[in-house]
UniProtKB/TrEMBL annotation:
Keywords: Ion transport, Membrane, Porin, Transmembrane, Transmembrane beta strand, Transport
Keyword Ion transport attributed: yes
PANTHER family for the chain: MITOCHONDRIAL OUTER MEMBRANE PROTEIN PORIN 5-RELATED, VOLTAGE-DEPENDENT ANION-SELECTIVE CHANNEL
Protein name: Voltage-dependent anion-selective channel protein
Described purpose of this protein according to its UniProt entry: Forms a channel through the cell membrane that allows diffusion of small hydrophilic molecules. The channel adopts an open conformation at low or zero membrane potential and a closed conformation at potentials above 30-40 mV. The open state has a weak anion selectivity whereas the closed state is cation-selective.
Gene Ontology molecular function: any one: porin activity
Keyword Zinc: no
Family: Belongs to the eukaryotic mitochondrial porin (TC 1.B.8.1) family.
Record CDD domains: Porin3_VDAC (cd07306)
GO cellular component: mitochondrial outer membrane; pore complex
Main localization, broad class: membrane
Subcellular location: Membrane
Length: 277
């Protein structure tokens, strides 16, 4: 794919990853195994509250085709087929679920040096949804928009616009979403050359309720095996996590959530162990 401005979904993604990725509140254990034929099998067990669930996933890659299949405890099978370069500079994603034969999604992404376009059609028994997005610019400066149309309602159900500026050591973005009812601005500053440590600030406002949320956070690489992350918002919610690579590619994550305005409430603790070949 060309080195262009990226997809519209990439706007604000760097800040979102630092502030949300790997923050867990349940117990999760997963084991992966790879075969000589290129198939990767992953079994996952999750315990949330008093409920337990699990799934089995398989992934197979052959040349420019990637197949993902997931089976959950309710015998639902979700399949995603990703094919690159059917047409030059494109990626096609096909998704469907079984035994729900009436559901499915088709997405086509087009990458150009100065633009990217995405069109997606999803459907089930009750409705058909069409999503379109476009981004113009360069890897340094990009702006774009997306819109969604639902046939059952006969109108646009979402439209969002965004802009981002990316430099070697920082990235700033602004997103106007919820059909113009909310705005979110974020800034990420990398603290090292390999971009494993960073500081983040994000502010969002919902106009209909006059609600503001301000969040600061960061990630710090203690060494090549251990990472610390934390974030705090103006509502008094403090989140922290420690992630350690116990063996190559296998991660142990311990996360916690505190309410600094109600210290008598027991903090939430999350634990995840992912073993990979």
């Amino acid at each position: 794919m060309s080195n262009g401005p990226g997809l519209f979904s990439d706007i604000g993604k760097k800040a979102k990853d630092v502030l949300t990725r790997d923050y867990i509140s349940d117990q999760k254990f997963s084991v992966s195994a790879a075969s000589d034929t290129g198939v990767v099998l992953t079994s996952t067990a999750v315990k949330k509250g008093g409920l337990s669930a699990g799934d089995v996933a398989a992934q197979y890659k052959y040349k420019n085709t990637l197949v993902d299949v997931k089976l959950d405890t309710e015998s639902n099978i979700a399949t995603t087929l990703t094919i690159s370069e059917i047409v030059p500079s494109t990626k096609t994603i096909i998704g469907f679920k079984l035994p729900d034969y009436n559901s499915g999604k088709l997405e086509v992404q087009y990458f150009h040096r100065h633009a990217t376009f995405t069109s997606a059609v999803s459907s089930n028994k009750e409705k058909h949804v069409v999503d379109l997005s476009a981004t113009l610019g360069t890897p340094t400066f990009a702006f774009g928009a997306e819109a969604g149309y639902e046939s059952a309602l006969g109108k646009l159900t979402k439209y969002t616009a965004g802009i981002s500026v990316t430099r070697p050591d920082s990235c700033a973005s602004v997103l106007l979403g919820d059909k113009g009812d909310s705005i979110k601005a974020s800034y990420v500053h990398h603290l090292d050359e390999i971009k494993r440590s960073a500081a983040v600030a994000e502010i969002s406002r919902k106009f209909s309720t006059n609600e503001n949320t301000f969040t600061v956070g960061g990630v710090y690489a203690v060494d090549h095996l251990t990472v610390l992350k934390a974030k705090l918002n103006n509502h008094g919610k403090l989140f922290a996590l420690l992630q350690h690579e116990v063996i190559p590619k296998s991660l142990l994550t311990i996360a916690s959530e505190f309410d600094t305005k109600a210290l008598d409430i027991t903090p939430k603790i999350g634990l995840s162990l992912a073993l990979k070949p």
